[in-house]
Specification:
By secondary structure, the chain is of the alpha/beta class. It is globular, with a radius of gyration of 18 Å. It has helices at residues 40-46, 72-85, 98-109, 132-144, 147-158, 164-175, 185-192, 201-214, 218-225, 247-252, 268-271, 273-281; strands at residues 2-6, 12-19, 24-29, 50-55, 91-96, 114-120, 231-236, 256-261. The chain has an 8-stranded mixed beta sheet with strand order 1-2-4-3-5-6-7-8.
């Protein structure tokens, strides 16, 4: 069921509800920043257990174009508009990658509205230095396994501007690094880009810069330590972002369980669907 959610500042957000309407309310927060919902596979895995709510974040994907504002506070308010639109008093909130950071930020702001936080493939609550250098090294190492892909990606990066087809190609090449199964990495990355929408680069830059200023602080760690909401952390052990970065969040949260899927990368539901479903089903 497709929906059009109106935010308090009048912006239209794309959203939909699928799965079992009588199931546990589950709201998904996609990664990015600046991307769009790619949770079709997650909905297929969990739809028998939950009423699955998906949405495209502000200015991204199928949501209305806009000029921001690009702040976590604004995105938290947009997420609350989605919750209110569907009449959800409390929800299980699942975020992936940047969406895991958004889901955590929402839970810190509105703990009374979150039944359980599911934090998938995030990067913890420390500074970017905990994970970003390792991510860059891992990206180049995986791309280097396919020299022609690496050369083409570097060629596209070096250009001043790209056509939409070239932008899609560049993104797909970069996304191949997210998968441990190198034989199927291009196939998986192509599926992420279908459908394709322009990446919102202004959104990406602004929110990443905000994270650099606000993450890794004693205040954030203290807020997580005081959070009285159950949390599940799900990692793919083969994610190129160092999983040790997430230890900071695991140490801080008082009610947390962590599941590491040993053969999965950044999108664990793709490479270990049974393990991912089993981990989340215990919450649902």
């Amino acid at each position: 069921m497709l929906q059009s959610v109106r935010t308090d500042d009048g912006l239209r957000l794309w959203a939909c509800r699928e799965g079992d309407p009588a199931g546990t309310p589950l709201v998904l927060c996609h990664g990015g920043p600046g991307l769009w919902d790619m949770f079709g596979d997650v909905t297929a895995l969990l739809g028998e257990l939950a009423a699955v709510h998906r949405w495209d974040q502000r200015g991204c994907g199928r949501s209305a174009p806009c000029d921001g504002p690009w702040t976590t506070a604004r995105f938290v308010a947009d997420l609350d508009a989605v919750r209110a639109h569907f009449g959800l008093g409390r929800m299980v909130l699942l975020g992936h990658s940047w969406g895991a950071q958004l889901a955590l930020s929402y839970t810190l702001a509105h703990p009374e509205r979150v039944e359980t936080l599911i934090y998938v493939s995030g990067t913890g609550i420390g500074p970017d230095t905990d994970w970003h250098p390792g991510y860059k090294d891992g990206l180049l190492a995986r791309l280097s396994q396919e020299p022609r892909r690496l050369a083409r990606w570097q060629e596209l990066r070096a250009r001043g501007s790209l056509s939409e087809d070239e932008a899609r190609e560049s993104a797909v090449l970069r996304w191949t690094v997210e998968f441990e199964d190198r034989a199927r990495a291009l196939e998986h990355a192509e599926r992420m880009a279908d459908p394709w929408f322009p990446v919102n680069l202004a959104c990406n830059v602004a929110l990443n810069e905000e994270r650099k200023r606000t993450w890794g602080t004693p205040e954030l760690a203290a807020a997580c330590a005081a959070l009285d909401v159950p949390a599940l952390i799900v990692d793919g052990a083969r994610d190129i972002r160092p999983r040790s970065a997430v230890d900071s969040l695991e140490r801080a949260l008082p009610r947390v369980r962590r599941v590491v899927l040993p053969e999965a990368g950044h999108h664990p539901w793709v490479e270990d669907p049974e393990g991912f479903r089993d981990a989340v089903a215990r919450v649902l």
